[in-house]
Amino acid sequence: MISHITIHPKILYYGAPVVLLSTENADGSTNISPISSSWALGSFVILGLGVGSQGLENLKDRPACVINLPDAEMWRQVEALASLTGKNPVPAYKEEIGFRYEKDKFAAGSFTRAASKSVRPERIAECPLQLEAEVRHIRIPEYAESFAIVETEVVQVHADERIAIGDRYVDPKAWNPLIYNFRHYFGLGEEKGKTYRSET
Ligand SMILES: Cc1cc2nc3c(=O)[nH]c(=O)nc-3n(C[C@H](O)[C@H](O)[C@H](O)COP(=O)(O)O)c2cc1C
């Protein structure tokens, strides 16, 4: 029997894939925001973004993005962006925890630019999965005004051919997402099984 205790964790990041979110800055350049708050509902992807982020500001004014999904081996490139913001000046609370302004996140993370097909922000060529998406709704909840819930609709999916099975499936044995687990980076372990609805 498990014996549970009550705890008061500072964070509740219980393990979610890292997304590198491309958005368009006012000057037409592309910003990249690392996030882990996202989930898919059919062809829609819901994102959780802090109101102090440049990514959110961009989505309010230019409502399209690319949801780039890095492979687990790319964690150092993600971490190279962890203390950077595209927002200038840097918000005071971010400056206090060591953030600095960076205009060129592609250079900072050693990423390669790739033009998108249906949206204006650029894709990150190294990411095996890239979802081009349009923003459908942004909500700042009245109970937590420092976060926004951004609803997007995926309009185009790009997959590394090595993880694709035909054009309808992603091979879960070949795709290795980067998991953000209580502020530590992990890959996936061995497969445990599959759901009765799996077709691969
Ligand atoms: C692995 C990782 C996951 C993160 N997850 C989120 C998240 O889900 N939502 C969020 O708003 N910020 C998240 N952050 C913090 C943002 O990266 C940070 O706010 C950054 O300033 C965003 O860049 P921007 O200001 O240029 O948009 C995360 C950072 C890292 C490194």
Automatic annotation (TrEMBL):
The chain positions of domain Flavin reductase like read: 14-188
Any one GO molecular function term: FMN binding
The record ties this protein, via SUPFAM superfamilies, to: FMN-binding split barrel
Q: Which cofactor does it need?
A: FMN
Q: Which domain of life does this protein belong to? A: Bacteria
Keywords in alphabetical order: Flavoprotein
InterPro entries cross-referenced by the UniProt entry:
Flavin_Rdtase-like_dom, Flavoredoxin, Split_barrel_FMN-bd
PANTHER family found in the cross-reference section: FLAVOREDOXIN, FLAVOREDOXIN-RELATED-RELATED
- Could you say which protein family the record assigns here? Belongs to the flavoredoxin family.
Please state what the protein is called.
Answer: NADH-FMN oxidoreductase RutF, flavin reductase (DIM6/NTAB) family
